[in-house]
């Protein structure tokens, strides 16, 4: 890394360090991601072929940096095609144009509830994955070979992108959370309703078997905590959670089915030292009083709603972003786009607890005017300074806002997940002095497979 890039990275890291620890930064931090699909399109490469081969990906990424003035590394997660294709995925399928689609799937049947409640992870392995991934619905030998190939494919892609990210973060001085401090999670109700029961299925279940939904969400919670816990929690890292079903529920159903385990998930992870970055999809204005009850410093990224109301209700306790309509970049002039950024900064920036982002990432070049996209980010970078930088925002420690819930949540267990303490009973290390080394490796492989499988549902 050059000295200039090292200095830039230190400055950008300080912006987010201040923001995430309750201090007003020198200027508004910018965190705006460019999806892989848009990067490939911007480089004028074939979307389908490039996702498979990863050819010229370094050049593709570097060219996309022409579009951005983000302080945080401007890359969102990529959906890898190979392992889904190897397993015949019904939930993630690449179309002829190279877009990986996520059709409505209902892989769990009403009669599966009892087995699922008894052990969600066991039920996923035995019943649900073979329905989502038909190649797993076969004899044990064929299933084992298919999963071995899929695992190899998944980590081949994951390692490629991790190496590419590390190289570019240093080369261009971007801020990035420390290695091992990021994770992804799903609220129990969303996990149940996204792929397992589907939108239609969960809607019927609320009327037909409400108590089973409650029991299933409680059963999922240890799994969600496990999935959302990173290897190395850090104030600069986060567990990303996209909220899906809440705004489609009546408020009384949200209170009964969605909120209790969502609340416990976020507080439980905070108790473990992990902050959550929560994407509030759709319009969450009727639930702001609930969001206020989450731990201080929780990061909310809003799609729609009233930014003034959000700032008023959440702005002193929580970190806010979003609201800038990405579609505006396609339909408005450059001056109008910049004026919109000014408007939102005037509302959301005072008092800190704010980073700039759009209401969603631009999925393709068709959704934005690239010139407007860059102009808005450059305006925020050059004009979003604070006169009261260094001032403390929070009036009490974050720990005082955390509801300690982990003691009441069972530890995650499954016959298909074997911690090293259990594994070594039948497979001890070759020598006693090697136990720590062997244990670290065995646990690492166990957790790698767990996280891959959880990314598949």
Salient structural properties:
single chain, 457 residues, alpha/beta, five-stranded parallel β-sheet, two-stranded antiparallel sheet, 19 helices, 7 strands, globular, UROD/MetE-like_sf
Strand content: 5-15%
Number of helices: 19
Task: Describe the oligomeric state of these chains in a short phrase.
Answer: single chain
Across the major sheet, the strand order is: 3-4-5-6-7
- Element-by-element helix/strand order: HHHHHEEHHHEHHHEHEHEHEHHHHH
Low-confidence stretches: none
Global outline: globular
Mean pLDDT: 96
Distance between the termini: 38 Å
Give the number of DSSP strands: 7
For the biggest sheet, the summary is: 5 strands, parallel
Q: Report the C-alpha radius of gyration, rounded.
A: 22 Å
Given the helix and strand composition, which structural class is it? alpha/beta
Helix content: 40-55%
Protein name: Uroporphyrinogen decarboxylase (URO-D)
InterPro entries: UROD/MetE-like_sf (IPR038071)
